[in-house]
Amino acid sequence: MKNGIYTTHSERGTELLAAEFGASLTPNTVIALSGELGAGKTAFTRGIAEGLGFAGAVSSPTFTIVNEYHGGRLAVFHFDLYRLSGADDVYDIGWNDYLERGGVIIAEWSERAADLLPEGTIYVDIGFGEFRTDRILRVSGAN
């Protein structure tokens, strides 16, 4: 996936776009997701995990803060930062340790930890399109 604007027309379409992207990811990639509630951040994460070969269930870690998905080509560390109050809280849950584990970090509501995002972070903002199932994904920071 390159920098640019992408449109999908279904949840599965968002997953497939992300799966294609996920297949090309390398260790220690950080993906910062933003967008309104229900825009498709978790669907995008499901696609990334699928593209990396993970076959299990992927769900939002709203109350656990981070879910780990192992069994694919790379581990996926899926953060939901919505319930945290800022960078100090993110740091306290071991953020820096996850950055060194060689997996892919995906952070929903990433704006809550903007100061902790490393150089090279890929930013994906997901918004609603014209129709109920359409999503517009704006990607920056990718090669």
Description:
With 143 residues, this protein is an alpha/beta fold. It has a single domain (4-140), classed as P-loop containing nucleotide triphosphate hydrolases (Rossmann fold, 3-Layer(aba) Sandwich). The chain has 4 helices and 7 strands. α1 (11-22) packs across α2. The longest helix is centred in the N-terminal third of the chain and has 12 residues, at 11-22. The radius of gyration is 14 Å and the shape is globular. 37% of the residues are buried. The model has no long low-confidence stretch (mean pLDDT 92).
Biggest sheet, strands in spatial order? 1-7-6-2-5-4-3
Gyration radius (Cα, Å) is: 14 Å
Q: Compute the number of structural domains.
A: 1
Q: What is the first-to-last residue Cα distance?
A: 8 Å
Molecular shape = globular
Helix-strand category: alpha/beta
The biggest sheet amounts to: 7 strands, mixed
Count of helical stretches: 4
Helix % is: 10-25%
Order of helices and strands: EHEHEEHHEEE
Q: What is the level 1 CATH name?
A: Alpha Beta
Task: Give a quick precis of the structure.
This protein is an alpha/beta fold and 143 residues long. The protein is built from 4 helices and 7 strands.
Characteristics of this structure?
143 residues, alpha/beta, Rossmann fold, 7-stranded mixed β-sheet, 4 helices, 24% helix, 27% strand, globular
